[in-house]
Write a structure and sequence with these properties.
The structure is a homodimer of 425-residue chains.
Chain A lengths: L1 E8 L8 E7 L5 E5 L7 E5 L4 E5 L1 E6 L15 H13 L4 H17 L2 E8 L2 H11 L2 E8 L4 H14 L6 E3 L2 E2 L7 H14 L3 E5 L3 H11 L3 H7 L8 E5 L16 E5 L1 H6 L7 H7 L2 E4 L12 H15 L8 H7 L2 H7 L15 E5 L13 H8 L5 E6 L2 E5 L2 E2 L4 H17 L1
Parallel strand pairs in A: 1-4, 1-5, 6-7, 7-8, 8-9, 8-10, 11-12, 12-13, 13-14
Antiparallel strand pairs in A: 1-2, 2-3, 5-15, 15-16, 16-17, 17-18
């Protein structure tokens, strides 16, 4: 038994926060929550009464290794950004770059209280190995473009090797997007996903042009496409972006196995539009939150993403009651974890995995925070700088500025070198 | 002479950042910039080559003491927010609350590299004294509502006592807004401002309703009002918000003495709308950046404000080329300082005040940053957590988490107590 002592506990199932000790068993599960300063056992962390314990944050759509491409191309339209800056550099990436860039991303996410993420890229064995080593939780897939059996086979090999590893890795299939994968290949991937009980991670209607293509070229409604290809029937479907998913087709994606991932900052930065989050939530669709890759954000900071989500829709709809702090915290925790297929992840309760972000609430920005308003303080006044510790399955990955499972200086030094290589070549 | 050694220097007049030592004379002015590691003198700070030196950030519209009201009312429409939550508590605020709340705000701003701010509230002697004590720079005014000679006299007494103090305090006159001050009182205030050579800080067209009032009730164009009241002729005019300033009247406020202050997060949070920043910048109007008060933001974090500004307009206009990182950094430094009437503040150059934010660029988010792309990394990837030191007039206020001019723990303890008082009463 180990103890997170004297913290203010909040998750999406609670109205008010609760002062208590979190007891974690040897399987890394929360075994009970006791009154503050009452639990016996090894003290993993002492919150001293001025630390919030919330579920570890979940980044439900990213491309971690793109940290190596951060800032390479700024303030450009999407297609010029991709074609003149991103694609040429991506063509030069080698497995070692994917590994180091991924590790750099894990450093950034872990220091911000992120415990779990969903990733799509290539050379994904490297990302999986980095994730296993760092002790994080992730749903990973090999991005598949075209009708490319080599890429599909790499994705399946990734599943064979890593799916279920340490209870922390889920492998999904990663068809990239409707406009990069032919329909029959999508159907094949969806069918394999159902057979092998794998989830699917898919880019979905990020830009208005994609919606127009459905109308003018495919001549099919987006939801009919999702259903017709078999995607709606895969065990877990993670649809990233969904900026242009038709509002009158939200009923079709309101399913236990389907999660829409909102990427607020990337959508703003690339000028993609405003996802209809208001309507998604009204319909009861499961909505999660993601940063997208660091090349189009440029932070892997779920705090930033929560605050931006909570503010941008209020502003856009001129309605300050929209998208509450509590709704975005749910999106950034349990909604994302369950959307990827992780069970008992994203709440702080008995029998659930002890994935936690411990947040300093003793700083200037938290004066006035109490058990009734903690989530609002976290989202509107808090930030990743307040994270004191990040814990996955009861194991501390980060505490008071130090990484316990990763060599920060070595990773920064290696990525600095790799960045020079890929930009120069 | 004291030295900021081995830093990467950037300000709005530079295309590329420059490695160097900043030499500061005994008057707190930059006396020269020398090659890195070459300057002789007392070492104020050693950047070790992995620290950026940028002008201290400028928060051009806030109400610092509202930190005591942070989180008191969330997710409410503006008028309900004001009338049911904010006003009743504000009525209970005493000078000691204004002082402690102000000090709490200074803690937060200083730790985020903010060196200068413009504030409007009441019991402003307390804010002035806190600012003098903390060593920050500020333009302060007593908010005047109604045709209230008591408030005006308090504002003038503030000017008598504090204007020009230590070269760091400017006192302005603070008519609150067109809808809270009768026109003849505005005219009187503007006339006094011109006589006494004082600037004016004014809330301007924050909500659409205010614009409608100009059209339907005052039956005058906003710009004719600014001109007719004499406001356009005061030495410095700071217009906060400007969300609904008519785009076809931007020429009228394009004047050396007029600055429009953009408050991106407050405008989003309260659902006020999108200020026409794109058009303001196209017209060449001077635009600054502000957080507004902590009750409607809820952070006094200019980094957050810069990033939100840079992202929200790209998203709203679906144009990723809009509002560049360099434009928002200018808004958040020299444009704000000059808008308040501070001379030689906001750039790092010979003869200018040594007001600096020193930023750690050795962390994971800065891999890839170099002399060519530093501003973009700062705005899109950086955050207030990277601030290592904050310097005003050559004096260090904050370094590596410690405050050199303020007692952090005492202020937090006092404000925690005060918060309870004002909420309970």
């Amino acid at each position: 038994m180990s103890i997170i002592r004297d913290v203010l506990i909040w998750d999406s199932e609670r109205q008010n926060a609760e002062a208590g000790d979190i007891v974690i068993n040897d399987s890394g599960l929360v075994s009970e929550i006791l009154p503050p300063k009452s639990a016996k056992g090894e003290r993993l962390f002492d919150g001293g009464g001025y630390t919030a314990a919330i579920p570890g944050l979940v980044n439900s759509h990213t491309h971690v290794s793109m940290t190596l491409l951060r800032g390479l191309a700024e303030e450009l339209p999407l297609m010029r950004w991709l074609q003149t800056k991103i694609f040429p550099v991506e063509n030069r990436l080698l497995p070692q770059h994917i590994r180091s860039g991924g590790e750099l991303a894990l450093l950034e996410m872990i220091s911000g209280g992120v415990t779990c993420f969903a990733d799509m890229y290539y050379f994904m064995r490297e990302v999986a190995a980095a994730t296993v080593g760092a002790g994080m939780r992730a749903a990973l897939c090999r991005g598949i473009t075209g009708d490319d059996s080599k890429k599909l086979n790499e994705n399946l090999a990734l599943a064979d090797e890593f799916n279920g590893r340490d209870g922390r890795i889920i492998v999904q299939l990663g068809p990239h997007a409707p406009y990069t994968v032919p329909r029959d290949a999508i159907e094949k991937i969806a069918s394999i996903a159902r057979d092998k009980k794998l989830g699917v991670h898919f880019h979905w209607l990020e830009t208005e042009g994609e919606l127009e293509t459905f109308r003018d070229e495919y001549k099919i409604s987006p939801s009919d496409y999702l259903e017709g290809t078999g995607l709606l029937a895969v065990p877990k479907l993670l649809l990233a972006h969904c900026v242009w998913h038709p509002v009158d087709e939200l009923d079709r994606v309101k399913r236990d196995n389907v999660t829409l991932v909102h990427n607020p900052k990337s959508n703003l930065k690339l000028g993609s539009g405003y996802a209809p989050i208001k309507q998604m939530l009204e319909k009861g669709v499961n909505v999660a939150l993601g940063t997208d890759g660091a090349a189009s954000n440029n932070r892997l900071d779920v705090w930033d993403e929560m605050r931006t989500a909570a503010l941008m829709h209020k502003g856009y709809h001129k309605d300050p009651t929209l998208l509450s702090a509590r709704q975005v915290l749910k999106m950034a925790t349990v909604a994302g974890a369950s959307g990827m297929g992780f069970e008992r992840v994203g709440l702080i309760k008995k029998g659930w995995h002890a994935d936690l972000a411990l947040v300093n609430i003793a700083g200037p920005a938290y004066v006035g925070a109490d058990v009734t308003n903690l989530p609002e303080f976290l989202v509107y006044a808090g930030s990743s700088r307040d994270v004191r510790a990040t814990i996955v399955g009861g194991k501390i990955l980060y505490k008071d500025g130090r990484y316990l499972t990763m060599d920060r200086d070595e990773i920064i030094s290696k990525t600095t070198e790799h960045r020079k290589q890929i930009v120069k070549t």
